Amino acid sequence: MTGELVGSWRTAVRIARRSAARNRGRSVLILLMLLLPAYAATLLVVAWANVASLGRDLDFQIGAADVVLSAEPAELRRVVATLPAGSRTVPHAVGRTVVALPSGGLAGHEYEATDPTDPLNRGRYVLRAGTAPRGAAEVALSSAMAARLGAGIGDQIEAGMPQRRLTVVGIIDLSRSLKLAALVVPPDVALSAGASRSLLVDVAGDPSVWIRPPVGPGEITHHGDGSWSEAGQSYTATDRQSLSPPAAYRATQAAATALVVSFAAAQVVLLTGAAFLVGARRQRRELALIAAVGGNPRQVGRVVLAGGLVLGAVAAGIGSALGLATFALVGPTIERVADHPIIDVSVPGWSVAGVAAATIAIGLVAAYLPARTAGRGPLRAALGGLRTRSRADLGWLGLGLVLLTGGTVTLFQAARPDGRTELIVAGGVALLLGVTAGTPALVRAIGRTAWLLPLSGRLALRHAARHHLRTAAAVAAVSAAVAGSVALTLVGAARGEAAQAWRDARDGQVLLPAEAAAVLGPDGIGRLADALPARSAVALRTAVDPTRPGTRWAHPEVMVEQLTGAAAAAADQVGIAVGGAETIRAVTGRDATTAELDALRNGAAVAFNDRLVVDGQVAGAIGDDGPKLLPAVVAVRGEYFRELPGVLVSEATARRLGLTPTAGHLLVDTTRTPRPDELAAATTILLRAQLAAEPVRGAPFTVEPAAVRVAGTDPRTMFYVLAVVSAVVTVAASLVAVGLAGSEMRDDLSTMTAVGAAPGVRRRITAAQAAVVVGLGAPLGLLAGIGPAAGYVAFDAGADWQTPWGRLLLVVAVPAALATLLAATFVRTRPGLARRAG
User: Fold this and answer.
1) What are phi and psi of 139, to 5 degrees?
2) Could you tell me where the Polar residues compositional bias lies (predicted)?
């Protein structure tokens, strides 16, 4: 039995290899569809292992240290005394300082003070050229800083607070961000005050014994969030475990990866399967001859299945080799894209082997249905070139309905904050599989409406229905591409819209701390405003209750709400400012209205946060008898800025409430977002004033416009990436389907040409074939993508559902239109005459 199986497979592989060589065009098409994902996946897993894995990320942050200790110097010395004998420490400090630019201006930049060559710093720095700084007059620059200053080894720069001349002795990049323009100085050098100092610690013996000792009287206690305490003393200890992402975050990332990989694999399987279906149909006489000489259905099917094995193995080998070669050749480019260096290159052998195995498996899965169909086909029909009808579509349709129902129910179960990301993935995959299973029946049903269309559309639709399995595979591939893009676009929009709420000030406005206004003085504030496209520059005054320092107030009914999204942002904008018309103009960007000015004169409040106002009143202060409510006029609705005041009262009202005005932010309201050169000029004015102050204190100020704070990838960038991916896959799927359909319609088109059909007929038929594929696939993908997106948004409390109609139209309609246009543009309009097989 084993010998027969091995011999059968050996013969099947030999036949498949010769068939692939004989049909080079189709073989190259299938090979490319399998090779490109294998190549991309190999490059990604190798790059991930070297620049983005958890182990690498920890090395970029804390190097080879077991723990990083941060505290006041006296506290650090006390904690170090508790370390086991033989432990090593390396000092490290991070701060900001002032650097003189070649243009004559000044800029604030980050600097780190440590010994980058110490073994504990291994992985945190990359020495590109020169040596590490050793003396107080030496400095190393990151590549970005060297490029900005136009400085190289041996040059001198001016940096520090106050300024001093330093000699550049090395180019050293910081691993956590290659884009960071920074300086590196020896550990005992301070370029400015206020640097955050810490110690990198190599704990002797088992680090966990010291890092997490048993709790007891007088012993160090670890609270699980990096905070430690002992006998009323506290410090911060950061170890590798505390830097690792939470389990919930890792589960979410794994689920997102699984969803993306499953959708991508489905696209490849479906496209490749369509090509195998055409190949099996072309081989039907050859396969029938094998059956005629005694081959059983399994042996006939193995010939087709062996084609998937052969082409999958070739694609896996070539794709993996090309991926590794690309990684070796474009290392600097990968570093720039990842924003991390490649240190101690390693090849994740098991991951690369897994990609190769997955490629072979995809080839086998893609060939399975054509192999099953070929093995069960009637012998006489195959020898005679006849097609047979199958009622299996109804069975697949039933399975598809079951999967769609199950996927919907699963997503409903997952669509709550305490749901599980695994259920979202399972529901999304079930929806995609349900759409795929039901597509053949849908294609055959749509074919019955062909009589409603003109000639070209009628021929294309009937041909698609006649070859419904191949058409359904291409339609399902388009559906998978569109569904993935729609789902991620909706999730990105939900997260992006939620992030829109978390803003410090209006776009383009400049907020500076109160110390900056004090350093500048009235004349300096005027010069700063002149350097910017400023409408006004106002030093805000904040009202505080001297009996409750640090307290901010809002209406009690607002404070007790459970808020998320925009409402949570509104709960942060609750500061009380003291001022008049100039404050209203600075905060809102417009002149004060008569109602607002009358409210201030009459002892009422002006609210810049409409959620603080309940029944026309806002809490102005909290006294012994509870909140003191003031009548309020709402000046701004629906926009919330965390660093701008939520309420404005007059000077007299503040005194009546027992509030004391103190210096607040310097707010520069601009007519537009300042240009980089304007920001640089304003920063120079501010830093010159700071350096001229006696004594020079604190970290340098930087003039930056307020902007939306978006965690992680910018949703707009992700949207453009998804739009491109969707367009590429949709166009590829439609062109593959059109190419396969063209090969099957070659005889029919030749006959039409022989009887006098115009060249434009072929172009219209080809465009109609592409329109059938994308016209069915895009709407199905839209429906399949909404489900997992809705489940994720309901699961993620930080996302607010939005419907970006413009972006959805771009993802769904533009690739479909582009595919149809390209299919009609690049088709051969004058096919040669072909002799029918007879």
Assistant:
1) -150, 150
2) 230-239
